[in-house]
Amino acid sequence: DDAGSAGQAAGALAYALLRTEARFALAGYSSSLNLKSAAEARASGRLLVTAGASRTSIFTAGAPDASLVFGLLPPGDNYDESLLASIVHIASEIDAGRANLPDGARCGPNGCRAGLRLSFICVGLTMLGECARFREIAGRHFGVENIAEDVYIPLNLSAAALSNGLLRCKEDRVTVLYIVSKVFEALPEVLSALELVDYTPYAVAGKGMTQSKSYREKVQRGWWQGSHVLDNTIWDESSTTTGEFSGMTSAAFSSRFQQRWAYRPSYLGAAQFAALCALSKAIEAANSLEVETVANEMRLMNLSEFYARVKFDAFGQIAVMPHVTQVPTPLRSKHPGEFDHFMYKTVWPGKGSDFTFPFPSWAFRRCFFERVDLDGTACFGRGHCSAGGACVCQDGWEGVSCEIPRATSSDTMTIVVAVLGAVIAAAAFATLVRLYYRRSQRKLQARLAALFAILHDAHWMRDSQRVSQAWKSLQNFGYTPARASEEVARRSKAQSEEAGVCVAHLLSQDFADLARSRTDKEDPTFYDMKDTFFFGPKPIGQEQTCPRDGGAGCALIDTLVPAHRRRCTHFLSWTWGYTLSTVQDGLSTWTAIEGLAPSEVFLFMCFFVNNQYRILSGKQVSAAELEHTFEACLTRAGRMVALLDTWDNPRYLNRIWTIFEQHVAIQKKLPVTMVLTSGATDALIAQYEAGKPGLLRVMNALTKVNSESAEAHVPDDAEAVKSIILSSSTFSDVDTQIIDFMLHWMSSTFEAHMKQIMAPAGKVGLRKSRTGLSVTVGTESEGFGYFSAFKKSLSSLSEIPEDEDSSTVYVSSDLSTYEKPSAAKFEL
Q: Which domains does the chain have, with CATH numbers?
């Protein structure tokens, strides 16, 4: 069992090859797991065929035209290229009259192509890097000016975030939504939200989004809202090609697969079969089992199979463009038994008539599928649905669904005369009732809102008496005791997950005494505290029920008194290797500089907020759990505080978790406040005042970032976090990002210090000594001009003549310009 670890997968492969002396191997699914397996195959001189990896770096790591690793999935970017190209193609075909608009659909006044405007829906923090990369691809097809702002949705698929994001897209006239997510549940949520806000884009697309079993089964049961979504696949199940080696068609393969496994195969099943066909064909052609001879046949292969044409590029990856698929309209029937088979239709490359584009309006589709007779025929077969969703009835029929025979003119007059008086009276009465009802509803909603506000505050304060009183009042509004119990549990869980630890508590003598007495150390690290807080003779919170999962053992935050736990206001990025004094000094100086009351600041601090009994005992996979918790809380807080113990080789830049946190905060363009302890601040300023040597020392210390070799206290966590990074970026890109950020911070502190030197009497620039140093680094639009010039100045420090006084620093007199800046001289 490789437990989802790339390292373990590679180890398992190496063990299998050595134990069996095999010369050829088939890899498993996912690019992350294949990364190290491919390296192991090359190192051991074995031939590896993978049918589950599309990441190009797996193959380009080898020498061109000498590959020992072959992949049956095309490069990942090809999937996105094909989806985006197909949308532009069909829009152009409709404008040229070579394809027709579907019923109930329409483009803008300037045509379909001119109306294309795209936005990416990025689900989860780790997808932000992917979205940034996809924007470049989309710009080539749609034009950069037609790429709108991304919509970010947290992993918990918040309905509010999704609705707000889609409404923003609707206002921005976005016509194409592209979902970027590793969570399959994102697609149904997006489609449901689109219907809810009555927003009909031209197209909804997403790589792999229609592959989940739950989605397919839902569509099979008649969920018409799930139709028309664009996806892609390397294998076209409707293809009639007969394989040269297998002698099978796609239909024959599907039939045999289903007989064997009792479900229909996905493209991954066909890819694995094709991998075996390709390897077998190469062995036969080579008439040998020698690895290099067989590998050479693989490199030369041009095999036509039902799966695809198997032909590899110079690095061993299949050289084909994926097909674009579309989920067809389900059968119009109210009998679930008829939806027993799910089949995509291939729409590109192919005939424009197969492509449903743009989407028909929600109103039209609702009419088409819901205003039906028992046979599922729209408008009872006596009319047709308009784009606005109304049934346009044939002569002789009327009603919402054309279900009522139309009365003659004489019948109509009789009816009108008979009921006219009653209608007028009823309308007047109904108006009065409606006004009274609306007024009553407003009062009811206001009262409920007030009661829930009381309940919310009482929960935070753990005031059981006020909670009980609030629920007694809510019972008058129909809230039963059972519903009350469920709501209490839900709110307790939410508040536990959203809580932060109060800075006043962290700075208190009570907490210091607890840490020292538990660890028997004067200045313990938080690793020292972990052993005694959670695994000592009297573990804190071990006997307390966790409000999140109902199990024994809760997070440390749940044991604190109400005044010390409230909704988190800031996310603290730090490491458990810091000592008690480092954390207290850093937080004390930060709150003093910012003018914050420690009693009103609540930090997401993993030591307190995460349930360490679940993580440290190994009962949970910590990396995945922590990623989700981290993302949700960082999004809620909206700002990060990064605590450094020193500027000189800080521990912060050697830990993978803090590097990852910084990377995500930068990607989300969140403000990050860098905090140093008072002693470290004085040491940093001393280096600035040392001139050129000092600046170079600081620069060198803050640019030693190597995310690939960064560590975590738990090795499996390091492996998992690095996999998350590699899923959307590269180590070198992350390193560059962090280095630029640290230099930006350095430039900000240096600028503040220079302002202090040049400030008139009474003006304070950079605060040091007891007030410490705190600089918030913003986004590119918030001062990167100074940083760019400062970075250029740093790079030119080595060009200063050796005979100059080393305490002389050259600084551009115009730090917003880069071209040939004039220099001013400051004697420090």
A: 362-405 (2.10.25), 409-479 (no CATH), 492-638 (no CATH), 642-669+679-828 (no CATH)
